[in-house]
Amino acid sequence: MPPEIKSVRIDRNVFQQTLEKKLSDLPPLPAVVSKILQTVNDPNSSAEELNRLISMDQGLASKILRIVNSAYYGFPKRISTLTHAVVILGYNTVRNLVLGVSAFGQLNHKSMPYGLNRTAFWEHSVAAAVASCIIAQQRLPRTRNAKEESFIGGLLHDIGALYLDSYFPVQYAVTMAFAAREKKTSDEAESMVLGIDHLTVGRRIAEHWNFPSHLVAMIGEHHRPSLRSENFDLVAAVHAGDILAWECGYVASEHTQPHALHPDVQEWLNCTPEQWEQMKAQTKQLFEASTALLQVMKENR
Question: How many domains does the chain have?
């Protein structure tokens, strides 16, 4: 850590005032993305309409098709059109891929080399998405769209950390140095150094972009699941998926300590150590098949 980083002193009041201004000035999602989200929620919409909207952004359309044709989905024949992708995968899956690619593209500015390790961050995000999906499949087999929603929740759960690292690189580098020195989790260090954590920042971003309430909860509560939350099942899946990704070696940051599995989530999971190990093995296997998604995320830099 360079001396100029070590010597930085952060006034939390000034930082929070600046953060509030930058959050309020955060650009909206691209207009085409907003229209896509509206179309998916319209019961009268069609696959052709969704195809038309996504195709308005050729870069986005290309990325979605690359992901759809990846080993993760494992289709025997190449899917050449977005209409076909929607028919096979469903509206929600395609919507969530659009949302994930677009959200990261808006937030992923270059940072200093001393804060968030971006390679580790992308790997952790994809691994957490895969793990959350596996857990939802095991624990919520009868809940409609639970797998798809848990996947996007796992993918976007740390957008608050990405935002802090992108827009406040020096302050976040100081926070990471503090976490490493004091052996703190990321949110503990953020609260102590900055006076706010990435869960709160992520929630603010998700609300600013009018994300569905369950996605806001997964982003804003993934380290603090509560049985009182109406979205507890999905939050629990992402909380457990985040920890599963860490245990598989896909850590969000080499500077911070991992979280322990929350007792309420542990009870909710109701799985044996052998079942947990099986889910770890599945996560590793599916992560290896997710290289296309990982590459698209990295390209958003």
Answer: 1
